[in-house]
Specification:
Number of helices: 11
Distance between the termini: 41 Å
Order of helices and strands: HHEHHHEHEHEHEHHH
Helix content: 40-55%
Strand content: 5-15%
Oligomer: single chain
Number of domains: 1
Number of strands: 5
CATH architecture: 3-Layer(aba) Sandwich
Length: 330
Amino acid sequence: MATKVREQFAVATPNSSHPNPLISHEKLRQLYSMMLKCRLLEERARILEKKAGESDHYSSIGLEATAVGAAVDLRPADTLAPWRRDFILSYLKGVPLTAMFSKLYCRDTRPHHGNSVPGDCGYAPLNIVLPASAVATPFERCVDIALANQRKRNDNVAMVFRGEDSIFLGEWHDALKFAGQRRLPVVFVRQNNPPAVSVPLNLEGPGDAISTAAADYGFPAITVDGKDAVAMYRVAQEAIERARSGGGPTLIEAQSLPEYEPTQIDHAQYRTTDRVEKLESRDPITFMERYLTGKGLFSEGWKNEIIAAFEQELDAAIYNAEIDTCGASA
């Protein structure tokens, strides 16, 4: 029987008076730049799907710190299994923007040729597992891939993203148990949004302690503030290195709060004033701007340069997707 490990770490929020020598200024600026680009990408995708009459877009807005912090340094050979609201992860892994928008436009050249929801962006050339309606499928695929990597003795890792409802799924616990028993090179990232998809978590099951998700499976479980990209990056890099070096899996729980309700594009009719204020106080982009400002690494001019350049990239990608010339392959 695997040794029981009961770890739960409270990751302190970084501040300018406690510099982290392990993360360079260049990396900090990269984290912010990628978060901002992910926000712009998601906003474009949401607008396009709203115009097309789609009502089931799972927005990633508000989750940029979790996505970027965890996945920004994954290698092309690593495997990534996004959840249904993790559209931006495909961009972080390197999927061409035109291929992503071609998917949203349902073009013939898009990956998977219409065999999935427009916002679900799997991509075989970069080892991105397509989200599936069968919740067990991504878990099984990633665990199988991690086992294959272990047997091949390479240092590739698999990273699985899942939402707040995962703690109540038997398939999720089966994957955790098997990965822990075999010490597989896999990182599980659970985005914990207490309001959840349909009903609050406290109405879905008895309790939501992270220790119940990994304590009996022989590997650490770490809780991170989901709006804090720096904290997320620190923890994810340690987990990835642990997996690459044969140390086994890690479960990261990111306490998150998406800006948009999971299955609604226009949520203005039911957003309460107190929820708006809470969302604004937890915006990861604003949080990172304050952090970088304290270190002398941020300016509005630099931000505007990033926005202007990336808006041009988005315009070009959307144009190519509209005329169906992206040439994406599955």
